Each structure stands twice: as structure tokens, then as C-alpha cells.
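#lab-general

N.A. 3:47 PM
ok so I finally got the sequence cleaned up, no stray characters, all 85 residues accounted for. can someone with queue access submit it? mine expired

B.Y. 3:52 PM
send it over

N.A. 3:53 PM
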Amino acid sequence: MQNTTVNVTLRLDREIKEDAELLFKELGMNLTTAFNVFVRQSLRLGKIPFEVSDPFYSEKNMSRLRESIAKAEAGKLRKHALVEE
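B.Y. 4:20 PM
back already:
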């Protein structure tokens, strides 16, 4: 089976692209090669090859939120007056 290539167009913020090009150059590859590595690994694993997460949902933050909710429900929070300008 003969491999054929196709062009893929991606939109990135300019700064992100430039930073990525610098990083991948240090790793001995260009952006195209890095994207190919990502896609091939994704296909091999059947998923994105790293954890995608939002820091808001980190265990530390969720623990803090649960504590705050418990305090609010127990009436242990101080009320603050709104400051209007």
C-alpha cells in the first residue's frame, strides 16, 4: 500500500505557533512531524495521548469548594456588604 500525504490547515495563535516551533526544533523535529507524532499516537492508543483537564476541577480546588459549600450551608460564612461605586 502506497502512502500518500495530504495538506492539513490548522489555526493557532501566532505566539503559540512560534513557541511550538521553537520547542519542537529543540526536540529535533518541525511542527508537521510533531503533529504526525501526536496523530499516530492518538490512533495507536484510541484516545488523546495525554490527560486533558481543567485546573478548576483539580482535587485541591474541588476539596476547597466542598469545604466552602459546607460552611455556607452551616451558616458559618461572613456576609460582606457590596461596594457600589
